[in-house]
């Protein structure tokens, strides 16, 4: 039998390749490595959330992250990628700019078709730039997984595990996959001909893009605003924990929190730098911007703690790290290093102040998903309008970029809020919450029949 090798036949809508056969081994290796780094972020999140939880709920908190890999990993292969990116491969049209056909690339078999070309059996698939399509699928799968896992921090200690599993699959299908298509797959929130940006600012046919295109490099809207808004809806509709506002909920294992933050920071280089899709100069700039913003956010958070509380904490440092990573995610390919420092510092300050709002407004966001991911995600998305090189307001670009960044943030907020309510009522017959008795005993013991620590 003739030897097989990978070959790429790009659809008309895919990005232009370079190199003799349209593929780059270096770029492909980097995106595969990035996919592994982003997958690591979900177990890292399990440590981060698990450490922040009370001892009697740590296993359940970690299981919610790990189970997201199981649920979303299955449905992404079956229909998730197809709903997000099918038209980029098939050349077909999407549904109202909101989602692609879930059956066009169902099971992904179309991306691994084997043909005989010039006497050699080759894998033929549409790709993205210099990266084979299946590699891009792997990368995008990990984004879907961690977005779902992020939401779980808002419902610690009280949501039924079976309901969470059902919610995870339905929410990914009805909320995450459509929003990924809208932003990255050529839908309503992209720079395509039929997007909101084109309606507002016009479409440049020669450039094949909106005159002012939205910027979301690695997931400010798709991941963080999306997860943060869903977390707020869940926290409000599920209600408060039994002792909320009356007792202190202290992290049971701060070293877990620090370990989780460290692994998240490490994995985030795959998240942001991998989104460039190539091992090039822009990828290097994204690495620097990610580090600069994260460092500045950590220091901004600690400054708020020192002034407000009189001491800087380890949990504050870890939370500041996450706030900075969140904020720079949509902006990392558009800012200078100085701009990234400014974006990160503001994110750390805003998030440190925002986490107290749950006590003022009375919603039990258990592990501050809203205060960190929603607030920093909104700031990172809107901040592009001020700080983006060339197009940002502070760089002489006028108000256009700021306007479109605000628009896409608002659309993402409204879409996610409405659809998350719909999903919650779909799963309501399963029961949203564990019983008050089980909550008092501890969800680890009553639901999983396990305890994190055995004492003799």
From TrEMBL:
Q: Where are the transmembrane segments?
A: 29-49, 61-79, 133-156, 163-184, 217-239, 251-269, 281-304, 311-331, 337-357, 369-389, 401-427
Its primary localisation, in coarse terms, equals membrane
| GO terms for MF | ammonium channel activity
Q: Which InterPro entries match?
A: Ammonium/urea_transptr, Ammonium_transpt, Ammonium_transpt_CS, NH4_transpt_AmtB-like_dom
Q: Which residues form the Ammonium transporter AmtB-like domain?
A: 29-453
Among the entry's GO cellular component annotations, what is one? plasma membrane
> Which keywords belong to this entry?
Ammonia transport, Membrane, Transmembrane, Transmembrane helix, Transport
Question: Where does this protein reside within or beyond the cell?
Answer: Cell membrane; Membrane
User: Membrane topology per the record?
Assistant: Multi-pass membrane protein
> What Gene3D superfamilies does UniProt report for this protein, alphabetically?
Ammonium transporter AmtB like domains
**Pfam families referenced in this protein's UniProt entry, alphabetically:** Ammonium_transp (PF00909)
Q: Which PANTHER family match?
A: AMMONIUM TRANSPORTER MEP2
- Please give the family membership noted in the entry: Belongs to the ammonia transporter channel (TC 1.A.11.2) family.
Q: What is this protein called?
A: Ammonium transporter
Highest classification ranks of the organism = Bacteria, Bacillati, Actinomycetota, Actinomycetes, Mycobacteriales
